[in-house]
Amino acid sequence: MFDRFKSHKSVGAPEFLVVGLGNPEKKYNLTRHNSGFLCVDELAEKHQFKISKLKFKAVIADTVINSHRVIVMKPQTYMNNSGEAVKEAATFYKIPNEKIIVIFDDISLDVGKLRIKRKGTDGGHNGIKSIIAQTGSSDFPRIKLGVGKKPHPDYDLAAWVLSEFKKDEEKPLKEAIDNACCAVELMLDGKIDEAMNRYNS
């Protein structure tokens, strides 16, 4: 399938880098911290491409979405070093920060909720912290996927984000991921305001 879609690549350098954050081992696949991976996997399913080429300490796809050549990436460095993969790819393809779209989990939002921003702080998220440290900038657009607050204040944060979604969270999670994919498409077309107005919770 991947080879079949290679022929649909546009001429010219990639315009955008779309990054889903997560941890690479299978045991993390369905955890809250891997929401970014789940989202770009859905984007790949929707647009019929595979994120399978090993490059830049990541698995990537070089594809076309809405007539834009896009590198879609899942860093394989583990969350805390996600910035290494992002920096390598952005430097190689000369992609500016404002065209790096990062999708990741947010514990301050309920499952099913989205928050799209043009830029911002790391908000205590280690993957975002790494990207800011490596690229030297926080001026990149991001899509936050709600994964819910800790069950109680004393609950260990790492244990919470590395826990799997519950059965009753699957439907709102899927809706949020579908909306995030639509938001990515709008953002690629330069319609970030429309994406925020339509999908921000």
Question: Could you explain the architecture of this structure?
Answer:
By secondary structure, the chain is of the alpha/beta class. It has a single domain (2-199), classed as Peptidyl-tRNA hydrolase (Rossmann fold). It has 7 helices and 7 strands, in the order H-E-H-E-E-E-H-E-E-H-E-H-H-H. It has helices spanning 2-6, 35-47, 82-93, 126-135, 157-161, 170-188, 192-199, and strands at 16-20, 53-55, 58-65, 68-75, 100-106, 114-117, 142-146. Strands 2-3-4-1-5-7-6 form a 7-stranded mixed sheet, sandwiched between helices. A hairpin with a 2-residue loop joins strand 2 (53-55) and strand 3 (58-65). The longest helix is centred in the last third of the chain and has 19 residues, at 170-188. The radius of gyration is 16 Å and the shape is globular. 41% of the residues are buried. Mean pLDDT is 91; it is low at 1-8.
The proportion of residues in beta strands is 15-25%
Point out poorly predicted stretches. 1-8
How can the largest sheet be summarized? Answer: 7 strands, mixed
Q: What general outline do the C-alpha atoms trace? A: globular
CATH architecture tag: 3-Layer(aba) Sandwich
Supply the number of helical segments: 7
**CATH-derived topology:** Rossmann fold
Structural class: alpha/beta
Can you tell me the CATH superfamily?
Peptidyl-tRNA hydrolase
- Assembly state (oligomeric): single chain
Which series of helices and strands comes N to C? HEHEEEHEEHEHHH
CATH C-level name: Alpha Beta
Topology, number of strands: 7
Counting structural domains, the number is: 1
**Percent range of helical residues:** 25-40%
| Strands in their spatial order, largest beta sheet | 2-3-4-1-5-7-6
CA radius of gyration is 16 Å
